[in-house]
Design a protein that fits this description.
Layout (H helix, E strand, L loop, with lengths): L12 H22 L1 H6 L11 H4 L5 E2 L3 H7 L13 E5 L3 E5 L9 H6 L7 E4 L8 H12 L2 E4 L5 H11 L3 E4 L1 H14 L8 E4 L6 H9 L3 E8 L3 E5 L7 E3 L3 E6 L13 E7 L6 E10 L1 E2 L11 E2 L10 E3 L2 E3 L1 H9 L4 E9 L6 E8 L7 H13 L4 E5 L11 E3 L5
Parallel strand pairs: 1-13, 4-5, 4-6, 6-7, 7-8, 18-21, 19-20
Antiparallel strand pairs: 2-3, 8-9, 9-10, 10-15, 11-12, 12-13, 14-15, 16-17, 18-19
Length: 409
């Protein structure tokens, strides 16, 4: 039977849902009481009324892209933290992220356990330890499992190889591309790193060919999905059937440019409510695209599975010198009840920018509907564009609300 980190991973899905929803009112009340940023954002919200997903979906989405302006107004975390900072990390933007010192503060242990990490392992952690929290995040999870962590950080490939060989490190943490560099360098050096048997990778795409090549060398590679602000979000198990949601989160997939949950299985933006008392995030929009998968994993873990990272939701595109945003496309759809789904395609035939709004509409479109939508498109974006009507299901299910099809050069 597969091993699991704890009983939470295998509980009945309805029990999990009840537990998460029961914790919501207290969590929101805590955020409003202790974090001035949330007190402002959720000023009109009665925490006791947020007891189901429908009520949660009415709350505003605070997106990662909002953090630079929020934090500029109130350093360092925009007032979203409910406890004083013990560590401050920096991401491009700049965006400042807090780090705690509690056991497995970023909840990385569960993902590492699923990747085969166990007490007594010697884990080479090649994620960066400066500015980004990635190194500290994965280290805290490995330490919580009882692993000895080599704080290697990035670069110095020959030294990484020598360290693995000298310490007989049997576990790797880092990006898949750097794992390949280390393995290839070991071959050039004639170093024996056959001790390396498992790898937990993330932060970039894992090519199937790379996973297969590592497997042939005796290294099992599993990946996870995390962010600097939330910590661990989802992870693979030995079943290799999507990524399993971390137990400490409540997940929504919403239509890009809105806070409206999509239909089951549809691609949309990953929105997370994180039950971290120090940094309570309520309907936090990651800016990442994904979709929920039906059913439960064959490994026995029963939490929601997602398809992993599928691109960015921030699809703002410049047209004739002006930015057009997904929220504007959503506003156009909101003004016409016939529209089921809309996708703005921007191209530049002959070098001149052109917009085409493709709209899935219910039933037989009434006369003049395309012209009416085109008028709304012009009013909302201040730009002219064409409108093409389609039947429900004809547009691609890839989460894109704006498709930049312009060619350059």
């Amino acid at each position: 039977m597969p091993e699991h980190y704890d009983r939470l991973e295998t509980r009945d899905p309805e029990e999990r849902e009840r537990s998460l929803l029961a914790a919501l009112p207290k969590h929101i009340a805590h955020a409003k009481r202790n974090a001035p940023g949330w007190a402002r954002i959720l000023s009109a919200v009665d925490p006791e009324a947020v007891t189901d997903r429908a009520a949660l979906a009415k709350l505003p989405v605070t997106r990662k892209s909002d953090l630079p302006s929020l934090q500029k107004a109130a350093r360092p975390f925009g007032g979203l933290n409910a406890a004083p900072a013990t560590r401050i990390f920096v991401s491009p933007g700049p965006i400042y992220d807090p780090g705690g010192t509690g056991r497995d503060w970023w909840r990385a242990a569960r993902a590492l356990f699923a990747a085969g990490f166990r007490a007594g392992d010697v884990a080479l952690n090649t994620f960066a330890y400066h500015f980004t929290p990635a190194g500290a995040m994965l280290e805290s999870g490995a330490v919580a499992l009882g692993c000895a962590v080599v704080a290697a950080g990035t670069g110095q490939t020959e030294m990484q190889v020598a360290t693995i060989a000298d310490l007989r490190a049997n576990a790797y943490i880092g990006t898949p591309s750097f794992l390949k560099l280390i393995v290839d360098k070991a071959g050039e050096m004639g170093a024996d790193i056959r001790c390396l048997e498992k790898a937990a990778v993330g932060a970039e795409f894992l090519p199937p060919a790379l996973r297969a090549a590592m497997r042939e060398r005796g290294i099992r590679v599993l990946q996870s999905y995390a962010s600097a602000d939330i910590g661990m979000i989802a992870y693979e198990s030995e079943a290799l059937e999507g990524m399993i949601l971390e137990e400490g989160l409540l997940l929504e997939i919403v239509r890009v440019g809105t806070g409206d949950p999509v239909e089951a299985g549809e691609v949309g933006e990953v929105v997370v409510t994180s039950f971290n008392a120090d940094y309570p995030l309520v309907r936090f929009g990651t800016g990442d695209l994904s979709a929920a998968l039906p059913g439960a994993s064959a490994c026995g873990r029963t939490n929601t599975r997602i398809r992993g990272w599928m691109g960015r939701a921030d699809q703002a595109t410049k047209v004739k010198g002006m930015f057009v945003h997904p929220a504007q496309v959503a506003e156009i759809a909101k003004r016409h009840a016939e529209i089921v789904k809309a996708r703005l395609v921007v191209d530049n035939p002959g070098g001149s920018d052109r917009m085409t709004l493709r709209c899935e509409v219910r039933g037989e479109p009434v006369a003049g509907l395309a012209l009416a939508i085109a008028d709304t498109l012009r009013n909302v974006t201040k730009l002219r564009g064409e409108v093409v009507l389609a039947r429900p299901g004809e547009l691609p299910d890839d989460g894109k609300v704006i498709e930049d099809a312009k060619t350059y050069g």
